[in-house]
Amino acid sequence: MPLIPEEPQIHESAQGPRATPASGRTAPTPRPVPGPRPAAHPRPGRPGPLRPSPPVQRTPRDVAVARPEPSGPAPVAAAPAAAAPQIQLIPASAEGALDAAEEAVDLLLDTGRAPGEVLVITTGEQHPWAAHELSFGEASYWAQHDAGDDVFYADAAVASRAASRPVVVVAVNGGPAAVAAETLPLAHARAGSLLIVCGDPQQINSVLGTGV
After folding, report:
1. 143: part of which helix (H) or strand (E)?
2. What is the pLDDT of residues 28-74, one digit of tens each?
């Protein structure tokens, strides 16, 4: 059998890199060393990375001072009491009280009071206007009261039904003393700013407790 000569073995040098690769391969290109990656471009439709804003230095005026809140409910201010109406007394006898009341009403209207601001109450005989209007029925009579555009006259028996008005004039023109004692406090409550009483001063003072 013929002997195949052995191929000579080539020993690589232990010093230095190869000049050429074995088996006819080309040497791989050295890869670059990876450095810091650049910031990724934001995708369409998505916001990019938010950068934290630098801290803002606030002056003492910009810093809100926290105040402790009251532990209990806030105190409610008391409403001022309604001022009591002024009281004027016109001395008159029982027979002349109605005429004195008429003169007081005329003076009020002459000084600028509107007729609808005045209510007249009698303790004895009805005022002629009231007697005349009641002859047409109570509905018509009280309709004029509700309209509030003219002086309204009422006797003590129906005075409690009358509404308050800025000025109330009382003619103590007779009737039992008990009627006057009930009518004067009622008139005082109905008067908004002024109560005028025509009658006996001693009787009026004893009921209202005034020194007028």
Report:
1. helix 138-147
2. 555 544 444 444 444 444 444 444 455 555 544 444 444 555 555 55
Cα distance between residue 192 and residue 86, in whole Å: 9
Both structure tokens of 32: 């670059």
Assign 184 to helix, strand or coil.
Answer: helix
Using only C-alpha atoms, the chain has a radius of gyration, in whole angstroms, of 55
Q: Which residues contact 111 (CB under 8 A, 6 or more apart)?
A: none
Distance CA 120, CA 137 (A): 19
Residue 196, classified by CB atoms within 10 Å of its CB into exposed (0-12), middle (13-18) or buried (19+), is buried
CA distance to 51, 57, 58, 59, 162, per residue, from 54 (Å): 9, 9, 12, 16, 76
Length of the chain: 212
User: With contact defined as beta carbons under 8 Å apart, do 167 and 192 qualify?
Assistant: yes
Q: Which among 139, 101, 117 has a CA at the least distance from the CA of 194?
A: 117
